[in-house]
Amino acid sequence: MLTNSKQIRFHENILETIGGTPLIKLNRIAQGYKPQIFVKVEFFNPGGSVKDRIGLVMIEEAEREGRLKPGGTIVEATSGNTGMGLAIAAALKGYKCVFTMPDKMSIEKIRLLRAFGAEVIVTPTAVPHESPESYTEVAKRIVRETPNSILANQYYNPKNPEAHYQTTGPEIWEQTGGQIDYFVCGIGTGGTISGVGKYLKEKNPGVKIVGVDPRGSLLRDYFYTKKLPTAFSPYKIEGIGQDFVPGALHFEFIDEMIEVTDKESFLMARRMTREEGMFVGGSSGTAIAGTLKLAERLSEKDVVVALLPDTGERYLSKIYNDDWMRENRFLIPEKITLRYVLQAKRGVNQLISIDPVTTVRKALDLLSEHNVSQLPVIDNGQPVGSVEESELMSSVLESPALFDAPVSSLMEAAFPVVHIEESINQAIALLSKKHPAVLVQDDGKIVGIVTRFDVIEYMSR
Ligand SMILES: Cc1ncc(COP(=O)(O)O)c(C=O)c1O
Q1: Could you give the residue ranges of the DSSP H alpha helices within 103-247?
Q2: Which residue ranges of the chain lie beneath pLDDT 50?
Q3: What is the pLDDT, as a whole number, of residue 346?
Q4: CB under 6 Å to ligand 1: residues?
């Protein structure tokens, strides 16, 4: 911060606002836990994430070493946030940026990087780390093919952990007055946990450093067994967990690793927003879910700091989108309404009905064409009856003249009507009382039909 002759206090440029993020007490979510829990909130950085801290440092090192010259291009394999950190510094310094990103990353991150004028190349997530198609290998190839370009190389660049040794670690030490007992953090490149861990342990070797790892990543297994597992399972959380051990990760500063699932992470990120007012991303949810698992066995005198890497704005289309959360089975609605059951009826959302003057022949054709066993009879938008395939067939077998009779002469009682926002239990109660189907009403109109089969299929999913 500068002050000029007119006593105006200002920053020379945006880069000077990186770091110095606040430490905030966890309140409602920490209720019932003994230790004092604080969070280091990294979305206060200008690019909205902890990665602003490493972008500038990696660029300046390449400049010092003469690897990056004016007009040059910065290339990086990134889950998005490091790209932002690099793009901000590159904007001020006039460099071009090319980023490779795995296709599981949110669309918001791709758009953000493009907003900075960066070229973003999306690569498949489901390929091994060493495959030529992986985001790290594609980034290396671009550097080979682009004159005056550098790979920022966050996974191996010693400047990555060093940036945290120089800034994040000292900030946490000072903010806690040296009273920190536990530091909890997710691991992507390992830069944050290694740099902060090294600093805090130098200050006090008794400080415990706890890594949180998504289920499906190999880092926790490797930490405890020193063996690389051969099979991995995919996970949705972005920015943390690995299928290899990055060079920027120094396990010697880590004491313990805790596993957290996608679901625990996402639900906790949403709780952080709604209960603490901190709009954070998924890996912050992982950090807090891991912190609470740790906190269960700590006491009142323990001070815990968890690092929250980024903002929730980057995940509006995912974690903060109820449809995405439900599709991925992370969000079980409190009340399963008939709206969900109708939505789950893939490809058969259109209501097939007949009116009372439809002939029995036409009704049988429709039943067979749409492969259904019953049809509602609707007159002027109101249900007036129903027909059932086997009943219609018995009738025409007995008396073939009925083929050309209107269904009104043979129809049975109308199916019961249930509102679209009613619980599935309401439909189940009616279906178990021998009604073959219920009609679903929305805004005074019949919008769908739910049969026994639909309910059973929904419940079995
Ligand atoms: C959202 C998010 N959280 C956490 C991390 C992990 O930080 P680090 O790479 O320092 O281990 C990253 C890194 O990419 C990230 O993007």
Answers
A1: 107-115, 135-145, 159-163, 169-175, 191-203, 219-225
A2: none
A3: 60
A4: 79, 81-82, 186-193, 238-240, 281, 283, 309-310
